[in-house]
């Protein structure tokens, strides 16, 4: 008897694919607990399909007929070419190669947005001194910095008296960087020279972006960082401890610019339901982030500052990537 015949029709494999890591999980059906969650480095595999097959081999799971993928990339049409990694594939071609009935591919921050209503109380915490609760049934914004910068959101829809959520698919991480202080303007000019013109928010609000900020700030100030290695992790660590003053400046600038971008997102969506921060960088900053310039810059919106002050900001602090649950929602 074919092994797959013993698998429930709603059983699925879920994947959350970023520029650095790909996370996989097994789910028996809609809303079921995630099992066999593993993270595989993208650099160790030639393709998404090979990474998926490696996960199947490690877990001993058979391949079900349904596969869902959230990926850090625009999803328009059949062809996927990752922005921050070399993987590329045809959705239909991969479906046929795997031999599955259904392969759904969505943007990773669309997946994260779909997971927001599923978060448990202990999987989020309020950032800084803002409001503690969002307005029920109002729009929600999501952003996060990791290998890149992702943005998304949820819009409320009432159908037959029941509240539903419609995810917003976009690439907000590639909006233009909007500096506010004189030093940030000089940093932007340095980055414009480096990138031959336009500088997106992702160029600084990401792991590689921390290094870009460090390089630009050294040019602007003439000071040089004293770090064991020029990595995002080293900048974050020594910036928080104050061991490296240039790294501390970089981290403060990063948090300020992220606050401005998050406030812009709140205004754009009318996100009275709250702004949620995911990604790999900010959760690692812990309490230091709460005392950074983030919230002040978030609220600094001129004539409409009073609106943004009413918007809570939550840090997503879940042990297992919530985007996996969001991908599961897309397969319902």
TrEMBL record:
Primary enzyme class: transferase
Subcellular locations according to the entry: Cytoplasm
Enzyme Commission number(s): 2.7.1.2
GO molecular function: ATP binding; D-glucose binding; glucokinase activity
Residues involved in ATP binding: 15-20
Alphabetical keyword list: ATP-binding, Cytoplasm, Glycolysis, Kinase, Nucleotide-binding, Transferase
NCBIfam families: glk (TIGR00749)
Protein name: Glucokinase
Organism, scientific name: Aquabacterium lacunae
């Amino acid at each position: 008897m074919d092994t797959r015949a013993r698998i429930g029709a709603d059983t699925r494999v879920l994947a959350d694919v970023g520029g650095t890591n790909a996370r996989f999980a097994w789910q028996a059906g809609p809303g079921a607990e995630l099992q066999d969650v593993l993270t595989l480095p993208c650099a160790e595999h030639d393709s998404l399909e090979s990474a998926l097959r490696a996960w199947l081999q490690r877990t001993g799971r058979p391949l079900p007929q349904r596969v869902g993928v959230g990926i850090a990339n625009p999803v328009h049409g059949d062809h996927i070419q990752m922005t921050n990694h070399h993987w590329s594939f045809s959705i239909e071609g991969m479906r046929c190669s795997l031999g599955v009935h259904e392969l759904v591919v969505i943007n990773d921050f669309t997946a994260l947005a779909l997971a927001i209503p599923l978060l448990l109380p202990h999987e989020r915490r309020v950032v800084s001194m803002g409001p503690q609760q969002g307005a029920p049934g109002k729009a929600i914004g999501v952003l996060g910095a990791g290998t890149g910068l992702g943005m998304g959101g949820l819009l409320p829809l009432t159908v037959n008296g029941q509240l539903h959520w419609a995810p917003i698919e976009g690439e907000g991480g590639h909006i233009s960087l909007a500096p506010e202080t004189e030093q940030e303007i000089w940093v932007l000019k340095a980055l414009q020279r480096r990138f031959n013109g336009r500088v997106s928010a992702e160029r600084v609000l990401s792991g590689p972006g921390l290094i870009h900020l460090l390089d630009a700030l050294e040019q602007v100030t003439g000071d040089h960082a004293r770090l064991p290695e020029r990595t995002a992790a080293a900048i974050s660590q020594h910036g928080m401890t104050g061991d490296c003053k240039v790294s501390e400046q970089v981290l403060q600038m990063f948090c300020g610019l992220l606050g401005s971008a998050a406030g812009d997102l709140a205004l754009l969506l009318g996100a009275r339901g709250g702004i949620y921060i995911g990604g790999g960088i900010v959760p690692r900053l812990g309490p230091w982030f709460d005392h950074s310039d983030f919230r002040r810059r978030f609220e600094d919106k001129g004539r409409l500052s009073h609106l943004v002050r009413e918007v809570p900001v939550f840090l997503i602090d879940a042990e297992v990537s919530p985007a996996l649950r969001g991908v599961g929602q897309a397969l319902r």
